[in-house]
Amino acid sequence: MTASVLDGKALSRTIREEVKQETARLQELGIQPGLAVVLVGEDPASQVYVNSKHKACLELGFYSEVHRLPNDTTQEQLLGLVDQLNQQGTIHGILVQLPLPKHIDEKAVIDAISVEKDVDGFHPISVGNMVIGDESLLPCTPAGMMEMLKRNRIPIEGKHAVVIGRSNIVGKPISLLLQRENATVTMCHSRTNNMRELTRMADILVVAIGKAHFVDRSFIKPGAVVIDVGMNRLENGKLVGDVNFDDVVEECSWITPVPGGVGPMTITMLMVNTLKAAKRVHQIQ
Ligand SMILES: Nc1nc2c(c(=O)[nH]1)N[C@@H](CN(C=O)c1ccc(C(=O)N[C@@H](CCC(=O)O)C(=O)O)cc1)CN2
């Protein structure tokens, strides 16, 4: 068996086209979705992501503000900017690029973002709403994964999903979203004993552990769907996932590549969330 590849770039193009059309409809009503992205410091990867977010906004017809602050910005200064953006009518979504420099408390900053503008879905109220199944903006990477499964009509209900990794940004939310679709979910992490015994029972395996090529074919149940959220830069500069793609591809039914899988969906779902936030504030269906 050779797996079909879940192409995040192609799906992103489709979804962005949908967002663009919906944005044009809003503009006829005098509404332009607006996103503010805040970057503190000069982390090279973060700069690339922030530029991509700005570019995506312009392509879709959004209003975009990028605030680039120096590395020695104080927490008070950053909270002051978040407060200003919370009040600003042209802004429907606020995203503070992570990671933040060590002297700034990430949680304090996320908590300060108005829930209505929390397009990252990281605010504790957004997380709480997701847990109880109420309407909320979902974290972009897990939301992107769900979209990849659903739009490719990959069955979730009744399936055994195993998630490796328990981060607040990926592992925990994707476990909840899969459970919401009636999967039976097992969570594994760095201290799980006999991890292979669990992963070999997985119909859907999500890997978000942050270790290059951690998963090989010995982890895989034949025919499984494998979603790789890892992004690891090797010394030779190559970007690889947490899954050894070449080793696993003949064992599974579907697989996401790195690059070109889940990654591109992250920024696309940010655009979807910003559009939703704008529609919600203007009470548009
Ligand atoms: N506030 C947030 N910070 C961070 C988030 C987030 O969702 N919210 N996620 C990541 C970074 N990120 C977006 O911010 C992001 C990561 C990866 C990609 C992507 O398209 N990856 C490509 C490869 C890109 C490359 O070559 O480096 C891929 O996988 O194909 C987009 C966005 C952490 N911070």
TrEMBL record:
Residues 139-280 form the Tetrahydrofolate dehydrogenase/cyclohydrolase NAD(P)-binding domain. It comes from the Bacteria. It catalyses: (6R)-5,10-methenyltetrahydrofolate + H2O = (6R)-10-formyltetrahydrofolate + H(+); (6R)-5,10-methylene-5,6,7,8-tetrahydrofolate + NADP(+) = (6R)-5,10-methenyltetrahydrofolate + NADPH. CDD domains: NAD_bind_m-THF_DH_Cyclohyd. Keywords: Amino-acid biosynthesis, Histidine biosynthesis, Hydrolase, Methionine biosynthesis, Multifunctional enzyme, NADP, One-carbon metabolism, Oxidoreductase, Purine biosynthesis. PROSITE patterns: THF_DHG_CYH_2. Pathway: One-carbon metabolism; tetrahydrofolate interconversion. Its EC number is 1.5.1.5, 3.5.4.9. InterPro entries: Aminoacid_DH-like_N_sf (IPR046346), NAD(P)-bd_dom_sf (IPR036291), THF_DH/CycHdrlase (IPR000672), THF_DH/CycHdrlase_cat_dom (IPR020630), THF_DH/CycHdrlase_CS (IPR020867), THF_DH/CycHdrlase_NAD-bd_dom (IPR020631). NADP(+) binds at G165, R166, S167. It holds the Pfam family THF_DHG_CYH. GO terms for molecular function: methenyltetrahydrofolate cyclohydrolase activity; methylenetetrahydrofolate dehydrogenase (NADP+) activity. Residues 6-120 form the Tetrahydrofolate dehydrogenase/cyclohydrolase catalytic domain. PANTHER family: C-1-TETRAHYDROFOLATE SYNTHASE, CYTOPLASMIC, C-1-TETRAHYDROFOLATE SYNTHASE, CYTOPLASMIC-RELATED. HAMAP family: THF_DHG_CYH. Belongs to the tetrahydrofolate dehydrogenase/cyclohydrolase family. Homodimer. Catalyzes the oxidation of 5,10-methylenetetrahydrofolate to 5,10-methenyltetrahydrofolate and then the hydrolysis of 5,10-methenyltetrahydrofolate to 10-formyltetrahydrofolate. This is Bifunctional protein FolD. The lineage of its organism: Bacteria, Bacillati, Bacillota, Bacilli, Bacillales. The gene is folD.
